[in-house]
Amino acid sequence: MNLHITGHHVAVTDALRAYMTSKLDRVTRHFDHVIDVNVVMSVEKLRQKVEANVHLSGREIHAASEGENLYAAIDELADRLDRQVVRHKEKLKAQRDEGFERKRTDLN
User: Fold this and answer.
1) pTM of the model as a whole
2) For residues 85 and 24, is the Cβ–Cβ distance under 8 A?
3) Which residue of 39, 45, 75, 94 has the fewest CB atoms within a 10 Å radius of its CB?
């Protein structure tokens, strides 16, 4: 998995990078086929925002969140990405199972 973290009006420290990496481990634990992750952290006055684009095999997932601090925004972003990845994985499994059932009924 390639991870690109950039900051807009904020310096991406080693602590922020490590925290983001640890939160994205949860996403990769649910789905192994993560190709690329682009994260943009931005601060505009009191608005602290984190956006992520996750490139999976066959799909592009986007999530964004705002929080009172960057760590809270990263937590919320990880939750949103995790839900979307699990939903994508369930759809793939359902399609695979549907194809298997269709093949079994065609053989009978």
Assistant:
1) 0.83
2) no
3) 45
CA distance 81 to 84: 5
3-state secondary structure 56-75: ECCEEEEEEEEECCHHHHHH
**Positive or negative: CA dihedral 44, 48, 65, 61:** positive
Are 88 and 61 a contacting pair, CB within 8 Å?
yes
CB-CB contact of 56 with 85 (8 Å): yes
pLDDT in tens, 1-46: 789 999 999 999 999 999 999 999 888 887 878 889 999 999 988 8
The pairing of beta strand 2-8 with beta strand 34-44 = parallel
Nearest to 65 by CA among 74, 56, 53: 74
